[in-house]
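Much of the work behind modern protein science is quiet bookkeeping, done one molecule at a time. The protein below has been through that process, and both of its lines are reproduced in full.
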Amino acid sequence: MKEIVLEDPYTIPYKGIYAVCDKNNGYAEIIEHTNCYGGAAWVKFHYSHSPLVLKARSIGNMIRYLVRTGTSHLELKPSRFAAGIESVIVSGDEVSITYAGLGGGGVGATRCRALANGVLRYECTESGGGRAAKGTIVVPRRERVIIGIDDTDTKEKGATWTLTHNIAKELDCPESIYLSHSLVQLYPVAARTQNCVSTVLEFACTSAAAKEELLQSIRAALIRYSVSKDTGMVVLSDFDAAAVQEYSMKCRSGELSREYALRYAQEHGVEIWIDGNGIIGALAALAWFARPDDSVRPDAMIGDN
């Protein structure tokens, strides 16, 4: 028999909690990187009933809550609505998030989140047993950076999705959190390597300086490791990717030119970082960030989820 010694048997710290805000701080996405998906799935069900929560979904072991910022009143009820997000307040470069919960939900609302990576400071009440509990964490305010990449490989060597993930994983850091990676099925044009798939990376950055360092590093790594002369890299810094949805649907249903892609990017605020022919597919990938289950389906519509 193996003796089990637990230093803190009733706490499972989250791996990380991040707050991505829109430019006007009216909306935020609270992204929780869990160490226990079973507990996080219970939380997602209950938190989704919070007045501030507009949408809740899971991607791998991350739970994402799209919220309106502000404060609400929670009427917690055992079993039916046992935990929730009470407030999301943006102040300068910080975001304060207040959670409340009953019983085990209160444990999650307090110590489990307070001890997550990325938390700057916290306040919480006693929790556990039959108590109602409340906790507030303060995390850095972040903005979303979406990077579309295509054509890093040739018919003889390489795969864009593997290269991009490996680069992103190496650049993951407190100032630029690597949030998601999606493979995007495109229209099978003649000038393709094999499957006609591009890739989109999603990061959450704390500052313009962090964003610039991230993008410079990604471009340098692509130039170093790409085996194709047609590599394309484009960047959209926005809370969502509505600006490129029309283009993406066209690229998934027919063949587009490089000239059209360049013009569309310029007119819709997309930065061109590497301008090979791969920008055609890279630009289309942007609309599918954080949607890896949908982006691989040729028949998926951007508004499906």
Notes: The longest strand covers residues 132-150. The longest helix spans residues 208-225. The chain has two domains: 16-141, 151-304. The chain has a mean pLDDT of 90.
